[in-house]
Amino acid sequence: MTTERIHVFKRFERFWHWSQAALIIFMMVSGFEVHGAYKLLGFKSAVELHTIAAWSLITLWVFAVFWHFTTGEWKQYIPTMEKVDAMFKYYLTGIFTHVPHPFRQTTLTKHNPLQRLAYLFFMLVISPVIWFSGWFYLFYADWSAWGVDKYLSLEWVAFFHTTGAFMILIFFIAHIYLATAGHTPLAHIKAMITGWEEV
Q: What angle do CA 61, 91, 126 make, to 5 degrees?
């Protein structure tokens, strides 16, 4: 079997990906400490650092959204149902039976149909839950000035924020699993470091 190397991930994509990953991992660690799961940084430090990481991630996303729209890379995320069932079967059983990969990656199609749907779910469901609840959590002292204190309770905001955190954790675990589903367990991870993918 012959392989060829294609340059798939640009420098900013790689920077954005790893910076986002580091911030999300740190926010999970600090956030679950704030929630009371364990003691590592101390509650006060965990809250302060979690907030700094959240603002840093928002800043990173602003640059990432700008980059995606100015370069046209946003098209990589347009969902499609074509070959979704084949991708699902591949990830479920095909990997273990050495079935050929049903999707061929190119510089114009970096994400397979299942990845596109997963990213769409992340952007339309998980992100709004975590960001809106986090926003209201952070500015709890301003609720009465905004006139929303009659409609919101801190318990429900905390519940939705924690629910969003668990959804991100599940997404993260699935992402790690799928990242090891290349022709070698580290092939996709290496590609996200170097930008070059072997196909």
A: 30
Q: What is the CA radius of gyration of the chain?
A: 19
Nearest in space to 58 (alpha carbons), one of 132, 120, 142, 161: 132
Write down the residue that tokens 């006060």 correspond to.
44
Q: Cα(78)–Cα(80) distance, rounded to whole angstroms?
A: 7
Q: What is the pTM (predicted TM-score) of this model?
A: 0.88
Q: Inter-axis angle of helices 154-179 and 187-194, to 10 degrees?
A: 100
Q: How far apart are CA 96 and CA 91, in angstroms?
A: 9
Helices (H), the chain: 11-34, 43-71, 84-92, 113-121, 127-138, 143-146, 154-179, 187-194
Closest by CA position to 67, among listed 123, 124, 9, 12: 12
pLDDT digits (tens, 9 = 90+) for 140-153: 999 999 999 999 99
